[in-house]
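pinging the channel bc i need a second pair of eyes. not urgent but kinda urgent?? the chain im working w is below, pasted from the shared doc
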Amino acid sequence: MRARRLAERDESLARLHALAEEQAALRRVATLVAGDADPPQVFAKVCAEVGALLGVDSTNLVRFESADAAKVVGGWGRHGAPVFPAGADVPLDGDTAVVKVSRSGRPERVDDYTDLEGELSERLRRLGIASAVAAPIKVAGRLWGAVVASSGRPYDFPPDTEERIAGFAELVADALANADAREQLAASRARIVEAGDAERRRLERNLHDGAQQRLVSLALRLREVEANLDTDLDAARRGLASARDELGLALEELRELARGIHPAILSDRGLGPALDALVARAPVAVRITELPSARLPEPVEAAAYYLVAEALTNVSKHAGATEATVRVGRTGDRVRIEVRDDGVGGAAVRDGSGLRGLADRLEALGGRLRVDSPPGGGTTVIGDVPLA
């Protein structure tokens, strides 16, 4: 009896020790992920930690390229054990553990590779691998790849192995999501800089071609007036009248330019009157079906205005529509902006497009942009922005 109690105590202590080692390994990987390490660093660390924790011969991390192929992105081998090198292509044939994961999206195992068919099974046997366990890596709900632990002995993995490596697979997914977010942020910042540079060039060009030329012409007219003051008063009067007209045109062009930067009516009177003025200039019939009853924060009003302006510009240029509707509604602490047309559809948010710039503007406010545009079914541009 005493011997059995001692054996149970030793078994319990062994389980606690194994759990503590697993938690320590997970913490080390989590610390690396939290430090925004590059994915290849995380891949290598996960392979090493899983291999040491399970005491296996080798581990690999693979990314699914298609239904028929994967690529090795990380690997670890114990004491020189054979391992698939990073960058190696892997065929997804037969019923190996990684192939089963690619099909099911769940943790899988193969306890004995001896009789399995297929190119991958043959390559595994040549490397001395007899059994394996794999856990899926999912990013944004989609199957991205798998963590694979391999052994040179058949039936070498305890029943809980899948659960033990699943935690590491989740940390890999976190690292990939972090890297994707950093890439998107960097791309968004680059687009904002490019948009600012393009807008400055546009302003410079419009000033040079428009108001600046008017003012140069005005200066010449005034010189003519000055020259005629003592000799030809009628010519001087005509010159002043012409200069006055030229000045009026220059002022109008400057007003149009300023209106394109930020319409004064939006600041002075709010979103409703600004949209009314926008709709009045639209080349297609536009109805405003809903507007907030009170003023919104200035950045939100500006975002809503420019979303509607860009969407209506696209309606007139590309949609082939006969009518459109505009709706700006407030629900709780969020504002939804919706522009719908009955045109040809097929629109999308693409780099370099006005909609891409609008998406960046909304994301900077914590919002998002969505475009629903099935071919032949019209286009709906939807912006969602928080008030705070």
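so The CA atoms of residues 276 and 288 lie 8 Å apart. and DSSP finds eleven helices and eleven strands in the chain. — does that match what u expected or am i reading it wrong
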